Amino acid sequence: MISDVVSIKRQFTLDDGSRCELQNFDGGDLDNVHALEVRANPYPWSRQNFIDSVSNSHICVGVKVAGDWCAIAVFSIASGDAELLIISVDPAWQGKGLATQLLQLMAEQLEDYAAELFLEVRASNDRAIELYNRAGFNQLGVRPSYYPAKNGREDAHIYGKTLRIG
Ligand SMILES: CC(C)(COP(=O)(O)OP(=O)(O)OC[C@H]1O[C@@H](n2cnc3c(N)ncnc32)[C@H](O)[C@@H]1OP(=O)(O)O)[C@@H](O)C(=O)NCCC(=O)NCCS
């Protein structure tokens, strides 16, 4: 199974000197992971979403600084392509390049298993869209009225990035 293969353990340092550990999270981390998600994301995943991802062997990773989770992301792999299902950075840690580093390191990790990395993002999520553009993703399409929103519905933008040629 892919997630047994994709065991993640990478270190990096932010510009402010914080020493970060990118690693897998599992069922024992869900209280802290879900609490981070609720703090970070105006449309948070439910605890059940995380339970489903852990039990469906999605690639569940996060970044720890001094033992505390600061960022989380979940990826799936199917038919030779990867999908980023969620990425969230604790508000106290946003704007320091954490998501950029997490995406870069995971793109390197996943290239042995997936040719492309896809994601969907709310059309209004300027910050995330800027992140994906800077990280080398290209917009591939739009799913009209895909997400429920505060007032009605909003479009999803579909982005993709090539991980491996050939
Ligand atoms: C979108 C999100 C994941 C970005 O995470 P992040 O760690 O803040 O992203 P980065 O720091 O890598 O880049 C974001 C900003 O920090 C700036 N930045 C990057 N590296 C930096 C550094 N070394 N020092 C200071 N600022 C830096 C970037 O220029 C960028 O600035 P901008 O806000 O003007 O675009 C985060 O805002 C979040 O969790 N949002 C809520 C959940 C969400 O919307 N997820 C995406 C769903 S598709």
The low-confidence runs, each spanning 5 or more residues with pLDDT under 50, are none
Mean pLDDT across all amino acids = 95
In DSSP terms (H or I, runs of 4 or more residues), the helix count works out at 5
What's the story with the biggest beta sheet? Answer: 8 strands, mixed
Shape: globular
Q: At the first level of CATH, what is the class?
A: Alpha Beta
CATH superfamily: Gcn5-related N-acetyltransferase (GNAT)
- Roughly how much helix do the residues carry, as a percent range? 25-40%
Tell me the structural class: alpha+beta
| Beta strand count | 8
Order of helices and strands: HEEHHEEEHEHEE
What does this structure look like?
The chain is an alpha+beta fold. It has one domain: Gcn5-related N-acetyltransferase (GNAT) (Aminopeptidase, 3-Layer(aba) Sandwich), CATH 3.40.630. It has five helices and eight strands, in the order H-E-E-H-H-E-E-E-H-E-H-E-E. It has helices spanning 2-5, 30-40, 47-55, 98-110, 126-134, and strands at residues 9-13, 19-24, 59-65, 68-78, 81-89, 116-122, 138-149, 152-162. The protein has an eight-stranded mixed β-sheet, sandwiched between helices. It is globular and about 40 Å long. The two termini are 23 Å apart. The mean pLDDT is 95. Bound molecules: coenzyme A.
